[in-house]
Amino acid sequence: MTGHEVRPLAESEFREAHDLFRRALLWRPSKDEEWERNSGRYEPGRVLGAFVDGALAGTAMATTNVVTVPGGRRLPVGAVTGVGVRADRTRRGVLTSLMREQLEDARRRGEAVAMLHASEAVIYERYGYGVVSRSRTVELDRRRAALREDAPVGGRVRVLDQDEAAPILPAIYQRCAQDRPGQIGRDDAWWAGQRSWLGDGVLIAVHTGGDGLDDGFALYEATKADDVNALQVYDLKSANATAAVQLWRFLLGVDLVDRVVGHGRPLDEPLEWWLADRRQCRVTSVDDDLWLRLVDVLEALRARTFGPADPVVIEVRDEFLPHNDGGYRVGPDGVDRCSDEPQLVLDVAALAALYLGDQKASGLVAAGRIEARDPAAVAAADRLFAAVETPWCGTNF
Ligand SMILES: CC(=O)SCCNC(=O)CCNC(=O)[C@H](O)C(C)(C)COP(=O)(O)OP(=O)(O)OC[C@H]1O[C@@H](n2cnc3c(N)ncnc32)[C@H](O)[C@@H]1OP(=O)(O)O
């Protein structure tokens, strides 16, 4: 598609891009205070604009971050966000041009992967992104969801308002284990931006462990609909299981509350195991969490560790970034380009689904997303790509 120009925006153009993005998401333009809280996320050089007839028609940006991959390495990554095209300029290739320029920029920066959260599931696969982690929404009937007597106990919980919590949350987040695949960083600009999304009613429960260190927090808000008082838990992070249980114990103990709803929780959070009646944890949805794009397939594969299994030769197809096209030998001792007959053939978005261990190769073969030319390689690929921990991002950006 021609007829539009894509270039990095000047700082003086960032707010226009921010408001274009907000309008594309059907929100009103930002108020001054909201813009001030978000402006730090706009990194010079990483905010792209697409112009049609000389006017800004679309935008996409990325913030510099890191993401954990299996084995514990933290890879430099662009966290893609702020994507929007004016409603009167959609479906003429504006986003496609922005994505092309953004991925080329990531390559120039030496970032082997890019990541995002998607507003809709049908947008990003064409650019090579795949779902690498999922999360669940859980609902607990507060009066019936008693914890087991043998659930961990210890420490204490105090409740802070947003101003009180702001200076201490970043350090607690740092203390929370970040070796789980899909974990990302939260810098000062992220925390400032997050404040602008939170309503006035949000409170923060902070857990302090027996050693006197704050080791977990829960951001929550009370809501009332159809005569049901609920606590909506938007963000709950903990450095250890005791802190997590104590935060849930606190939330389930708040008077007058009928229901506690946990949003974006990891699939392997052992809530059912902490409850006396496991059915009191109702999973109301399982959603895609992080999407990831292998920008440089060889470097991205080399960055993670693989499980014990015979090496497998895969052929990767990547229409959007053809430099990735070709064969790779993947094994526990390393990854190399190769020209041997491929045993498995897949596109780069399907490879992303394997990359953090969210999906098994055998599942993607059954789904028709991997062509198994050598059926014996499927079980080996299952073992190679398996991750010890369930991937989860749990940070919106
Ligand atoms: C990481 C984030 O920030 S997520 C937020 C994403 N932004 C939004 O959801 C805001 C609202 N939506 C928009 O602003 C726009 O519709 C965008 C950004 C999603 C797409 O922008 P466009 O310029 O219309 O995309 P573009 O024209 O390049 O589309 C390329 C292809 O994707 C398809 N496509 C793009 N968006 C969608 C969609 N939402 N649903 C279905 N198909 C889509 C197009 O039909 C086109 O297909 P084709 O190549 O077969 O013709």
Automatic annotation (TrEMBL):
The keyword Signal is annotated on this UniProt entry: no
Q: Give the Gene Ontology MF terms in alphabetical order.
A: aminoglycoside N-acetyltransferase activity
Q: Which GO terms describe its biological process?
A: aminoglycoside antibiotic catabolic process
Task: Tell me which SUPFAM superfamilies the record gives.
Answer: Acyl-CoA N-acyltransferases (Nat), SCP-like
Q: Which residues cross the membrane?
A: none
The record's listing under CDD domains reads: NAT_SF
Q: Which residues form the N-acetyltransferase domain?
A: 4-154
Which Pfam families does its entry note? Acetyltransf_17, Acetyltransf_9, SCP2_2
User: What does the subunit comment say?
Assistant: Homohexamer; trimer of dimers.
Q: What is this protein called?
A: GNAT family N-acetyltransferase
Q: Which organism is it from?
A: Saccharopolyspora elongata
